[in-house]
Design goal:
The complex is a heterotetramer, with two copies of chain A (151 residues) and two copies of chain B (83 residues). Chain A is of the alpha+beta class. Chain A contains four helices and ten strands. Helix content of chain A is 38%, strand content 34%. Chain B has 83 residues and is an alpha+beta fold. The chains are: A alpha+beta (151), B alpha+beta (83).
């Protein structure tokens, strides 16, 4: 299940729905990402997330299908907010169900890694020093390489 | 052809989208970016270093050497930072 | 935070408390383990979890301290049920908060791996064919080796 | 000394715990298990293969060659299966 929009979400409710719907799976792993409070020592005033409507949903749905196939998931969800968010606000929730814990951990990390640098979102951080687009990190590309080797 | 710009590319160009008539010699995403860079100083700045620009045709990520084919929409943007 | 007992728990509420308490951390990863519905094709009628009171809490607290130190966690919880549980029932919830996602995923997997074979719990599965103690898996020992190499 | 048994070890012995006077020649967890195995058929069965038995002294996991030291409580059980 994919959802992209400005609205906040309730992780407890979303994960409960995934748990209820997960059939015979014994493991549920989730990742919740929130807006950080500081960036390189400076307080963050806001984080604005821009996206490419239409392409975002397609990219996330493709990642979800790939994770389902590759890790044998019995259920999954990806929720991602866009727009202007405050420090501490929820940005993204990824949840996956699988029969065993190893597959569930792998699938959740896989989705989170692809979300970081293969879904059309861009983050702009506002601090007292001004606003700047968050740069892509080399470590995020490195994280993806692990999945390509294992493909 | 419809061209979309996002994030710092959009800000450099000062447009979120525009409609353009693409000439026949433009064959790839990279050709398109180089051709678009002639349209204004903002375009030139946005496309000055294509190593830092990503492209999509019809909402699918592509490489700078991917042929235009039958694409009806192209988008240019910096590396993505989701999650 | 460690809790061991027969009572069920509400993962949404527990994770919300961890989220609220997590300070500046940007990532929360959780693992929920539930009783499977089948064991080698046979329906599971119940799963009974025995534990060593006192030692269990000590072992979990030591794992939590080690994960906090090793992965720089800003918050964590381990809840584990004991007693007789039905198929689909919740068994265990592990939740961790860390500044970045990689550390949070690692810490949650670390805790889950140690829980499996270094905390004094034993599972007995009841199927129509009778009851049997669940055997330790070689794959669970192998999972631990990864953390010892990286120590 | 207080001895606790769990899971299949408890079932084989038919006791969850017992209090024993440990003789001086018992120096390690393994010695203790071998000495306990003389107490009944169930004990003998439970400790027949020490490779499948785990031990703890005073609620801390130990090896079969760990010395008793000042331990006041010992526990024996099969490999753990939590999570």
């Amino acid at each position: 299940m994919i959802r992209v929009g400005p609205e906040d979400f309730d992780p407890g409710r979303e994960l409960a729905a995934l748990e209820a719907d997960g059939g015979e799976a014994g493991a549920l792993v989730s990742f919740l990402g929130t807006v950080r409070v500081r960036s390189e020592g400076a307080p963050i005033l806001s984080l604005t997330i821009e996206h490419y409507p239409g392409m975002t949903e397609r990219a996330l749905a493709a990642m979800e299908r790939e994770a389902t196939r590759r890790f044998g998931l019995t259920g999954s969800l990806i929720l991602h907010r866009v727009g202007r968010l405050k420090p501490g606000a929820r940005i993204v929730l990824v949840g996956v169900r699988a029969p065993h814990r190893a597959a569930a951990f792998e699938a959740c990390a896989f989705l989170t890694d692809f979300l970081k640098s293969r879904a059309p979102f861009w983050k702009k951080e506002e601090t007292p020093g001004g606003a700047r687009w968050v740069g892509a990190k080399a470590s995020d590309e490195a994280a993806l390489a692990r999945w390509e080797r294992g493909a | 052809m419809k061209i979309l710009y996002f994030s710092s590319v959009r800000e450099a160009i000062g447009l979120a989208e525009e409609e353009v008539e693409v000439p026949g010699h433009v064959r790839t995403a990279g050709d398109l970016a180089r051709w678009l860079s002639g349209r204004s100083e903002g375009h030139a700045r946005a496309f000055a270093d294509l190593a830092h620009v990503r492209a999509a045709f019809d909402m699918a990520l592509c490489e700078m050497d991917t042929p235009l084919g039958t694409a009806r929409e192209a988008a240019f943007f910096p590396p993505m930072t989701g999650g």
